[in-house]
Amino acid sequence: MSPVEKRSVTIRGHRTSYSLEKPFYDDLVAIAAARNLTLAALVAEIDETRPRDANLSSALRLFVLDWAKNNAGGRA
């Protein structure tokens, strides 16, 4: 398993951090590119829609999982 790496991002002028394993981070980067967004813009979008009782790292992982399920070539 890939170690968790801490990363920083600025969302709406506020500096914050999240921790993700490399496969989740790589998929997040790919999703942002596929949607013609910067990584920061995608993270901000996910942050805006997450439940306030969920932490950002968990919300990012769940977003990647949901994206993978919905884009599994019709298998999901």
TrEMBL record:
Q: Which GO terms describe its molecular function?
A: transferase activity
Native species? Mesorhizobium waimense
* Highest rank taxon of the organism: Bacteria
Q: Show where the Ribbon-helix-helix domain sits.
A: 5-67
Please identify the protein, giving its name as recorded: Aryl-sulfate sulfotransferase
Q: What keywords does the record list, in alphabetical order?
A: Transferase
InterPro entries reported in the protein's UniProt record? RHH_dom, RHH_sf
